[in-house]
Amino acid sequence: MTDRPLVLGIETSCDETGVGIVRGRELLADEVASSMDQHARFGGVVPEVASRAHLEAMVPVLEGAFAKAGVKPDDIDAVAVTAGPGLAGALMVGVAAAKAYAYALGKPLYGVNHLAAHVAVDQLEHGPLPASCVALLVSGGHSSLLLVPDVTGDVSSLGSTIDDAAGEAYDKVARVLGLPFPGGPPVDKAAREGRADAIRFPRAKLHDGTLDFSFAGLKTAVARWVEARKDAGEPVPVADVAASFQEAVADVLTRKAVTACREHGVTDLVIGGGVAANSRLRALAAARCESAGIRLRVPRPGLCTDNGAMVAALGAEIVARGRPPSTLALPADSSLPITEVLVP
Amino acid sequence: MLLLGLDTATPAVTVALHDGGQPLAQLVTVDAHRHAELLAPAVARVIADAGVSRYDLTGIVAGVGPGPYTGLRVGLVTARVLGAALGIPVYGLCTLDAIAADVDAGGGDFLVATDARRRELYWARYDAAGRRTVGPEVARPADIPVAGLPSAGEGPMLYPGLFPGGLGPAFPAAATLCRVAAAALESGDPDKLLLAPEPLYLRRPDAREPGAPKRVSQ
Fold this sequence. Notes:
In chain A, about 45% of the residues lie in helices and about 20% in strands. Chain A is α/β, with parallel strands linked by helices. Chain A has a 6-stranded mixed β-sheet, sandwiched between helices. A 5-stranded mixed β-sheet of chain A has the order 8-7-6-9-10, sandwiched between helices. The radius of gyration of chain A is 20 Å and the shape is globular. In chain B, helix 1 (about 35-50) crosses helix 2.
């Protein structure tokens, strides 16, 4: 097998139907159909709505990816798919599609871990990962710190949220402030006009000696603060609340990420997941990594959110290492542990 | 003609290969919770058992339900992607019609009812010629106008008190989907019976629009 395999990647763990094609670490296509608009009025992703949308989008997105990449289905060396973690019904659409495609073309199938794919995607932008790195993955579904000696087979969890994911806290705070769903972009935008030190919101677990996070208390503190203003008949300073909330989130995430690097003697930090598109998180991470002597790698926002290219990128790395493929009986596992990068 | 048939709209994962005249291979596994694991190996198996190549397939027919959503989608996305990758047409057939095609009701009207979960059934009524006259619909078992008619599908087995004359079969057979599709294709008017491979969910997704945020302070 070539060291630059041509790999198709399929991702359906949440609300994006993503199909990507890579040749080794070169990105050829990254097509995404999102059902986000259909979820907005419900204030969160509705699993059944997402699953229905995946079924409708799958073949058009697949065909779009091949058209974009300018390669033929027969040319590909392997099919990779997110086997978990994620929404069970949504994952199953992608897994079934990947099996059908792999079988029809007579190509090997690789069921891979969504979180490891969020780390591997950075190779498409910034080249090979270093021998060991720490990854901070933050999205609407995940907030995790990982130690990554080898993204194709040796990944362990250093800490994760004990309650809400960071992106979930953004969605809930956006609702309290009357901003649209998903909450990340509008809160980030509002925060630019506000003062980050206007309100001192709590930083849970900052000094508890673990690398875990907690965002449920922060979200409630914001809601309580806003209610108190409204009860007093005073206007809510949306920009200051957004900026102060965002500062608390970025502060805890970046401090713990730097601590994780120090504790494990690692000098490279990768940040991924939808929240990695947040401007304050990116800026604070850059500043803190620089003063701590850590190299920071953050893919561009389009590769941070869920996509098929990240699955293809991890698949290509796995193929290049000659690891054995999955079988056609590959299950979707909604709570796939991060220690399982490749599902047999 | 070489048709691949599959149905995943009931607890049975059923796959068959058919040459238009007779079934060449069929595989049925009843397991309501493992459709995603079972289907692709079953497809590979029937094609291997029949000693043909997947590149010889001329069409695919898939049960479009109604049926529990997750399993149903596994079948439909598999059929659609196989069809797209192999460059062959994909047809849909109402799963209740596939069961009805295997019913011998002795020359009268009958019902087909399958499990819709949440204590409901998917059902349809057929005439003596096997033509669907009512449905498919989803309803609570007690609300289905059974009217003493014989019935097939898993529904009568789940609610024997409500359905007096239970007939077989309980589940659709993929070979029957192929047989019905082959006949429809040969009739020159396939659209009369065959559908697009679109799922019959018959229910909207469960989701409620949120009201104002709940108060958190005392």
